[in-house]
Amino acid sequence: MLKPKGKTPTLISGASGKPKMVVADGKSHCARCEGVIAAREQCFEIPKIGGAFTNKKRHCKTCFVAILAKTREDLDELGKLAN
Questions:
Q1: What pTM does this model have?
Q2: pLDDT of amino acid 22
Q3: Where are the domains of the chain?
Q4: 46-79 pLDDT, tens per residue?
Q5: What residues pair up with 23 in beta bridges, in sequence order?
Q6: Distance from the Cα of residue 79 to its chain's centroid
Q7: pLDDT higher for 17 or 43?
Q8: How far apart, in whole angstroms, are the C-alpha atoms of residue 63 and residue 58?
Q9: DSSP letters of 2-61?
Q10: For residues 7 and 53, what is the distance between their CA atoms, to the nearest angstrom?
Q11: How far apart are CA 24 and CA 16, in angstroms?
Q12: Distance CA 26, CA 37 (A)
C-alpha cells in the first residue's frame, strides 16, 4: 500500500453522497492511496455530487476506515460546539 495523499477527507461536506460497499468488477485503484483494488475485492465508493453528473471515487478498506475516523472526529468537534 502506498502512502495516502493529502489530509484525510471527511464525509460531513455536502459535496459527498452516501457511501456504499461494492465489489470491484475489475482491477482498479484507491482514490486516496492509489493502492491496487483487485477484481472481486470489496471496496467503498464515495460519490462526489456536483453538476449534472455524479463521480464515484473508490477507496480501499484501510482508507475508508481512516475517512470514517476523521468524520467521527469532526462530528465530536461539532458536538462540543453545541454543548
A1: 0.79
A2: 95
A3: 20-82
A4: 888 776 677 889 999 999 999 999 999 988 998 8
A5: 42
A6: 22
A7: 43
A8: 10
A9: PPPPSSPP-S-STTB---EEEE-SS-EE-TTT--EE-TT-EEEEEEEEETTEEEEEEE-H
A10: 25
A11: 20
A12: 8
